[in-house]
Every structure is written in C-alpha cells, then in structure tokens.
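User: Some background: our group keeps a shared notebook of sequences we're curious about, and every so often someone picks one and asks for a predicted structure to add to the entry. Today it's my turn. The entry only has the sequence so far, pasted here. Could you supply the structure so I can complete it?
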Amino acid sequence: MSTTEPRDSRDEQGFSRTRLSSASPYRCLTSTKPSFANSALSLVSTQAGLWADLEYLLIYPKGSYNTRISAHFEALHSSFARATNPNSLESDKFDGNMSALGAKAMGYVSFYRVATFVLLMFCTGHTIGGMLQQKSMGPEADAVFDSMKAVEFNFKGATCTWYGFWFGSGLTASIFLLLSTFIAWQLDNVPPEHWHLTSAISWGLVAAHLANTILAWAYFFAGAGLLSTGVTTLLAAGAWRKESQRALAHSQKKL
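Assistant: Of course. Here's the predicted structure to add to the notebook entry:
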C-alpha cells in the first residue's frame, strides 16, 4: 500500500509544496549580498512559509510533512541570529546606518533650535493653562478673583479692573515669549560670517530672559522659574557658540 501523502485539492490556491517553496526563506538566506534588510526579509519570509505549512499540517496531520515545519523553525532562528549578531556584516551595516542617521540628527539640533521648542511650549502653557483656562484655586482665591473682575475704578480717565490689568499683562508676556521664539529661530539661521550684525540682538535677548528668570523665581512658581532658567541658558549657549563659530571662520579667512 502506498504511503505517499494525498495531493491537496487546493494546490492551485496556494497550499501545494511547489507554491510553498516560493515562500521558503532559503533563497534569502543564501543571498550573496548580506545586509540587515536581507536578514529582516528572511524573517518575514520564514514566518510566511511557516504559517502556510502549519495550515497544510492541519489538513494532513500525519506523514513526514512535520519535518518541513522543523526546518522553518530552524531557519527562523538562524535569521534572527544573523540579524542580531554583533559580529555579522548585517549588524555592522545596520550600526553604520544608525550612526549616520544619528550624526545627521545631531547636526540638525542646536542650542537655538532647542530654545525655540522650549519657548513655544512655554508660551503655549502660559497662554492656555495660565491665562485662558483660569482654573479654580479654592474658595478664598476664587472670591478674590471674582472681586478683581467686579470692582471697577478710574485710572487715567479709563474705567479699569485689576482683572483687566492681570489679563492684559499675562497676554503681553505671551507675546514676548512668541516673539522670542521667532527671534531664536532666526538667529540660528545666521551664518558665522554675518554674526556680528546680530550679536547685539542675541545678547539683548539673553539679558531680557535673564530678567524674566529673576521675576519668575521671585513672584511665580517653580515650573515657571525652571523653564525661564532653561531658556536663558540655551539662548546664552547659542550666542556663545555663534561667537565661537564667527571667531573660527575669521581665523580661517586670515589663513
């Protein structure tokens, strides 16, 4: 009596051995062009063939076909080992690509660009969280706040409230932070050979934020003080770095 496996009636639909061989990982594993992408592709190919073979095994659970399943598991383990082996060519190329990507990212980052991001977050938090939301600070604080809105007085011929002074001053601070964001971004784009034209502006911005930092620690809370300190430090570091680049460019020009 013949012991050959019955032919799957769905061969033409993708479950025959011939069709399964197209999903086999071995062609990928024996490629003569090793790369991390090649190993990753072999992982995907191995899993595709493995799931197809498992479905075939559910149809015909007996026979020698389980040896093919074992081969797929071995190939999957081999592919993973090649992709993660620190001594392999695939890993070396992947590390090199990641190093190049990291160097490009670090070349994009600068003190002024980080300061721009922090200033934008500072402005958004101050305006939305501090000025517009106006959360309750407790019954006593809310009573004072309501009095600031209700009590009117004449100031220089205008009818004013302390709430109006507070709100207007707060939005003025938002404009200052937004303007600082724009200036910091523009200062980052100034080439070293033209930095002398904007050096006074950069240090003037540092001085303004230094004063803002002192006021933040004196009259506000720790979060505002820390953000102001961070912004001042980043702006000073950005200006110092631009000055150094200008000096270096000037010395190279003399040579």
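Suggested note for the entry: The chain has two domains: 11-102, 109-254. DSSP finds ten helices and two strands in the chain.
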